Amino acid sequence: MSLSRTWAIARKEFIHIYRDPRSLGLVILMPALLMLLFGYAVSLDVKKVKMAVLNYDGAQESLSFVHRFTGSPYFSLFGFVQNEREMRRLIDEGAIKMGLVLRHDFSRTVKAGKKAPVQVILDGSDSNTANIILSYVQAVVRDYTQEKTFLKIERMGRKRPEPPLEGRTRIWFNEELESKNYFIPGLVAVIISIIGVLLTGQVVVREWEKGTMELLISTPVRKAELIIGKLFPYFFLGLLDLSLAVLMGRLVFQVPLRGSVLLLLILSCVYLIVALAMGLTISAIAGTQLFANQMAMIIGFLPTFLLSGFTFVISNMPFWLQVITYGIAPRYYVTIVKEIFLKGSDFSFLWRETLVLVGMGLLGLAVATRSFKKELR
Q1: Number of domains the chain contains
Q2: Domain-embedded: residue 361
Q3: Which residues make beta-bridge pairs with 79?
Q4: Interhelix angle for 203-210 vs 261-285, to 10°?
Q5: DSSP code for 124
Q6: 133 and 255 share one domain
Q7: What is the pTM of this model?
Q8: Which of 67, 112, 177, 207 is the most buried (most CB within 10 A)?
């Protein structure tokens, strides 16, 4: 191999990227835009649930129970309604997500030490949100019931019983259960896939469409030199976007980075080679840039977004789909990024995923080299 010829191809590709504003926009603006969208707009956290209250009782005890909800950061009181028809209308209009109905004998039943039925009406159009809201309601009711039980025992002059077991919840790695800490690390894999697959999916087929591939074929540049020269600029841009994503995650969204930055960089280089090899293979096979874009979206971007564990938990997928994910490189890289970011894992916990990515990278480069033919079509 000749380094001068390889660098000449790489320099040519750098110049093309610099002169193509669309490629520059995709390289620089797209990662920042994705980080801002997923960091601010996309959230699995359910807070400030708007609720309406239909209180037939109106006594102090019922108002105290309602205050348990309004005093929580997870609920926001929209207002009191006069009848069920008004509450139904607010739910239909989407003004509220939850309705709370208290019977006329609520206070009397509670003071008598009996179970007081409470009706909770939820908007089930979003089942996931409805289940989360229901868990919040159950927690509020459980705390209220426990407090009233202990208060009743104390009034009877008996000693408050000590529970035989005391449960203390401790959450590791994402203590505040912020969804941004879940999304931002996985978004790094999406960004690298965009650069690696979508952009490199154009490098060869673009030369054929513009008629410049015939000139490259007539030069003494060898096939390996041509491939490395064309991949190097996108490898450099991938590292640039990786740095941008990590910096935005740490400085803008305050996502913890507990692991080694050097380890993250090295393993990201391995995955970037896998993505570049996939993009180059697509470019060598596709006949047009349009077809290359379509293949890159189907083979590269969509599996990263849907089947890597970035958006949806793999263990919740059907078994046959879980089997397919084992052949998708982003599955392993998303695991690596989340482990390094949130858990601070070292290589001893990530060597399996690394070996799989190294194997996929070598196989991908071999397929890309074999698919690219330095001859006229």
Answers
A1: 2
A2: yes
A3: 52
A4: 40
A5: T
A6: no
A7: 0.77
A8: 207
The token duo for 150 is 């202990």
Query: Residue 31's pLDDT is what?
Result: 81
Cα diameter, the chain: 100
| 80: enclosing H helix or E strand | strand 75-80
**Within a domain: 323:** yes
Cβ-contact 225, 217 below 8 angstroms: no
Same domain flag for 259 and 131:
no
C-alpha triplet 354, 360, 363: angle, nearest 5°: 140
Please tell me whether residues 192 and 128 are part of one structural domain.
no
Residue 168 neighbours by CB distance under 10 Å: 4
Q: Which residues contact 233 (CB under 8 A, 6 or more apart)?
A: 10, 13, 14, 17
Burial grade of 343 (CB within 10 A; 0-12, 13-18, 19 or more)? middle
Paired residues of 55 in beta bridges:
102
Same domain? 119 vs 182: no
Residues, the chain: 377
Mean pLDDT by 10 residues, the chain (377 residues): 80 81 75 80 77 88 87 88 89 89 87 83 83 87 74 54 59 74 84 80 73 70 80 87 88 88 93 88 78 80 82 84 90 91 89 93 86 64
Provide the phi-psi class of 266: left if phi over 0, else alpha when psi is between -120 and 50, else beta. Answer: alpha
**Whether residues 77 and 120 fall in one domain:** yes
Q: Residue 313 has which token pair?
A: 């938990």
**Predicted pLDDT at 107:** 85
